[in-house]
Write a structure and sequence with these properties.
Distance between the termini: 62 Å
Number of helices: 4
Strand content: under 5%
Oligomer: single chain
Shape: elongated
Largest sheet: none
Order of helices and strands: HHHH
Number of domains: 1
Helix content: over 70%
Length: 145
């Protein structure tokens, strides 16, 4: 911590990677099991409605996160160019906070929602035979709704 020894980057990357993978387990299980569960329990029509709702709302949310993250990043650059008082002002300090939130929004959170939507859609497609097997001939699922 005194700056006399070189940083141990390998250990830092190892800790971050293990933490990321550990935190990814539950969302991965949810994104795979929920489409299968909806299809088996409520049928093909409900699965189609679920996926349509997920895709519509997820796409809007992903675009919002990507665009707002980019806007916060560009706002900081604009302020640093001398607008609204430039560097060192309270506005600049606030823009740094916005940029700190904005970078993960535009670089990781927004694009990862698109990946979630693809996983849910592909899971539904891959398990469609199982969903139809457990549903009634009309595809209404196990529950009589």
């Amino acid at each position: 911590l005194t700056g006399e020894e070189p940083a141990d980057f390998k250990k830092t990357i190892d800790i971050a990677t293990k933490g990321s993978l550990r935190e990814l387990i539950i969302p991965s299980i949810i994104s795979i099991t929920v489409p299968i569960g909806v299809g088996i329990l409520f049928g093909v029509a409900s699965l189609a409605a679920f996926l349509a709702g997920a895709i519509l709302s997820g796409f809007v949310f992903a675009v919002f996160m990507s665009n707002s993250g980019g806007a916060w990043d560009n706002a900081k650059k604009w302020i640093e160019d001398g607008n609204l008082g430039g560097k060192g002002t309270e506005v600049h300090k606030a823009s740094i906070t916005g940029d700190t939130v904005g970078d993960p929004f535009k670089d990781t959170a927004g694009p990862s929602i698109n990946t979630l939507l693809v996983v849910m859609s592909l899971t539904a497609s891959m398990f469609m035979g199982l969903i139809l097997l457990f549903g009634t001939p009309a595809g209404s699922g196990l529950l009589p709704f």
